[in-house]
Task: structure prediction
Amino acid sequence: MRGKISGLIIILLIAVLMAPSLMAEEEGISGVAVSNGCVCHGAASDDVTVALTGMPEKFEADTTYNLTVTVTGGPAATGINIGGFNLQSTTGTLVAVNNFTQLNDGELTHAEIGNDFRTWDVQWESPDSDKQDVTFVVLGNSVNGDGTFSDDQWNSAEYTVQGANSNGGSVIDLGNIAWWIIIIAVLAVVGGVVLTLYMMKDFGKDELMHWLTTTNHKDIGLLYLWTTILFALIGLALSLLIRLQLIVPENEFMIGGLYNEAVTMHGAVMVLFAVSPMSFAFANYIVPLQIGARDMAFPRLNAFSFWALLLGGLVAASGFFFGGAADAGWTFYSPLTSLEYSPGAGVSLAGAGLVLLIFSVTGSTVNFLVTILRMRIPSMKLMQMPMFTWNILFTVILMLAIFPALLGAVLMLVGDRVFGTIFFDPSIDGTTWWLHIFWFFGHPEVYVVLLPGLGMAMEVVPTFVKRTLYGRRIIIWALVVASIISVLVWAHHMFITGINPTFRKIETIGTELVSVPFGLIYLSLLATFYKSKPDFSKIPLAFVMGAIGIFLVGGVTGVYLSSVAMDVQLRGTYYLVAHFHFTLGSVAVMTLGGIYYWYPKLFGKMMDKTLGWWHFWLTFLGINLSFIPLFGMWDMPRRIYSYGADEGWATQHLLATIGSLVVFVGQIIFFWNFIRSMKNGEEAGDDPWGGSTFEWSTTSPPPRNNFDELPVMEN
Amino acid sequence: MIINKKQFGLVAFSLLILMTSYAALFNWFNGLGGTGSHADVYNHLFTTYWSLGVLIGGGVYVYFLWLMTTSVEDETEEMPKLGEIPLERGNGKVAMAITVVITLFLLVLSNVTFDSIDFFEKYDEHTTEESFTVKVTGYQYYWNYEYPNGINFTSASGPLKIPVDVPVVLEVTSGDVFHSYALPEHRIKVDSIPGRSNFGWIEAEETGIYPVRCFELCGAYHSDMMGELEVVEKSEFDTWYTGGGN
Result:
C-alpha cells in the first residue's frame, strides 16, 4: 500500500512538472506547433531552414534594425514563384522597406511580387523601452514554383533578443541581489532544518525513513509545522524584497515582471501554503489529543495530505527556477493569466501546485470531519468539545464547501493554457466569470485562515486569565452564522465590475452583517477577562492580546470596505493592503501565540522567555509600523513597483519598510529560539500552563498512542 | 525581564488606541480634500464611517480597559480544571442586544452608502444637454480616448480634456486585460474589463491637471500606466473640440 501511494505521488509529480512544457505549443497538444501564419502550404518539414539575421545582441530603445529573412532547403526552385514568409514580433514595429514585402495586421509578409525570392530585407523599429525582451517568430515557405503545392515545404523559427536594460526575462540573474536574498533564505531554512534534526538525535537512515513514511498524527503535525515555517520564511523573504523595492521613490532594485512575481508568490505562499496550513500543523497534533483519540481516522490519508501540500508548495514556487514564477497576482485575474499575456510556465506551475494543495485539503477535510464527529471519547458531547476543535470543525466544513470551486477554476484555467479551451475568453465575459468563481472560493478562504487562529486565542485566553470562556454557546452559534454568511458575500470583491446593482446592495448588507457574529465572538472573548486573574507575564497571552488589538483595527477598517460606495475609492489601493494585513497579520500573531502555548507539549521543553519577549515586541511594533502608514495611501494603486518623489508617499513607504525589517528580525529571533529551546529549554512537565483540555493530561511529548489510559470528562 | 501586569495591559492597549487614531488621522489629513462633485459626496460618506468607526473602536477599547480594572487577586470557583466539562457562561439577551445595536449602526451606514453609490453611478440623472460621452479603452499600458465627434488619441500622446462644470460620461472598457480607470483626486474609479462597458461620470469644479492611474494589476509595466486629466474652461474646450483636437 505504501509503495502504491509513493508510486502515485511520483506519477502525479511527473505529470505536474510535464504540464507546463505542453504549453509551449501555442495551439495546445492537438494543434500544429505554430499557427500557419503565412498561409504556408505543403507540409511542415525540417528540411527547410528559416533564418532571421542581422539582429543585435541586445537592442537599444527607439532604434531601427535592418534584418534579413532567408529560407533555404526544401524543394528545388523550378519556376518564379519560389518562396514566402511571415514575421511577427512581440514588441516594437515591423516595417516593410520595399514593395517585395507588406504589413498585414502588424505582421510582415511577402507581397505578390515578393514571392519570387527566398530572401527578403525587412526593418524592425525597437520600442521606446529597452527594459523588455523581444521574441520574433518567423515562418518560411519553400515553394517549388511549378504551380502545384505537391512537394512544397515550410518551417518556422523563433528568436529572442534581450533589451539592453532588460532583466533577462525572469530567468535567474545572479547579478540581481534579490536572488541572493532568496537563495540565502532557502539555504538558511534548509540549514536550520538539518541542524535541528541533528540536534534532536543522531539522525541516521532509520530516522529519515521514519519521517518519510510516518502516519502518526503527531509526526505529521511536526512535519506540517516545519514545512509551513519554511514557506512562511519564503513568503517573508519575498515581502522584504517588495519592501526594499518600495523603500525610496523610483527605485530600480526589482522592477517589472520580477516585482510582479514577488508580489504574486508572496500572496499565494503566505495565504495558501503558510498561514492556513500552519494552523493545520496544530490541528493535526492537538485535535486528536483534545478529543481523546489515539490517531486521526485515516492516518495514511493524513500522510498523503501532508506530502501533497509539500509538493504543491514546491511546485507552485518552482516557477522561479523555470523562467519566472506566476506574475498575475495571487488572485490570478483573467485574462492576464492567459497564454497571450503570461506566456511563461509560472501560472501553469502555480495552477499545478494549487491542484495538489486542493488534493491535500480535501483529504484533510474528510479526515478531520470523521475524526471530530466519530472519534471523541464517549463522555465528550459535541457542545463540550474544546474551542480549538470547534474552530477546526468549522474550518474544514467551510473548506469542503469552497475548495471544489477553486479546483474547477484552476482546471479551467490550466485547460485554457494547456489544451486551448476557452472558458475564460474575454469576449464571452470570461473575465467576470473568473472573478465570480474565484471569489466564491476566495472570500470564505479568509475565514478558513482566520478561524483556527481564533480557536487558538479561545484556548489561550481562558488558560491564562483563569476563567472559563464567556459565552461558549453564543460563540459556537455565531460561528455557524459567520460560516453561512461567508459563502454568500463573494461579490463584494467585484463591486465596481458592473454587476447587477440590486445584487450588489444585497452583498453590501450581507458583508456588513459579517460584523455581527464576529462582533459577538470578539466581545465574548473580551468578556472572559471580567473579574479574572490575568497573568500577563506569560508570552502566549501577550501574543493573543496583541492580536486582539491588531484585529480591532483590521475589523473596523474592514467595515469601511464593505460599503459599495466607499469601495469605489478604496478598491485596489494601499488602504486595502493595510486592512487585510491587519486582519491576516493578527491571525499570524495568534498562531505565534499558539506555537508558544503548545511548544511545551510538542517538545517537552519551554521556549526561552527573554527571546520570546523580544520576539513579541519586535513583531507587534513591527506590524504596526509596517501597515499603519499604508492606511493613509488610499490614492496609491497597490502592486505598483515605482512611485514619484512628488506624490507624497515616500515617508509612509520608508516607515513601512523599516517596520517589515523589524518584523523580520523578530522572526529570526523566534526561529533561533524555536531550535535552541528543543535542546536547551527548561523541562516543561505535563501541564506547565494549567490548561484544562485533554492534551495537557498526557506526557510531553505524548506517547505514540497518545494516552496510556483514555481520559474521561467529569462534572 | 520583569513586567508589571497592569502596566503591560495599559501599555499594550494604549498602543492600540494610538494606532487606531493614528490610522484614522492619516486618512483625515491625506484623504479629505479632492475635487469635483464626487469628492463632496465621498467625503461626507467617509466622515460618517470614520465617526462610527472611532465610536465603536473607542467604545470597545474603553470596555476592555474597564474589564482590566475588575481583575481580582484570588482564584475563584470558575477556574477551568483539567478534564472538567466546560462551564456555560453567557447571556443570550445581552447577545441579542448587541446584535440589535450593531445592526442599527449598519442600517445607518447602508443608507448613506446606497445614496452615495446611486449618485456615483446613475450618470443619466446628472447629465445636461452639454454633456457628452468619452469612450475610454484600456490597453497595456495606455488609455485610448474617443470623443463623440471622432477625436481619437491615447493617454501617451495627451491628457484627457474635459470642460469645467459640465458632467461628462465615461464609458470604460478594455482592449486586452483587466484594468481599472481611476481619477483619484476626483474620487472616481471604473473597472475596465474586456468584453464589457462600465459607466462613470465626472463633473470637474476646478480647472487644472490631475493624475489618471490604473488600479488593477495589468502586467509587467502596470506602474507606468499613468495619464493626465486636463480640466479647461468651457470656451477653451469648445475651440479644441471643434478644431478636431488641435
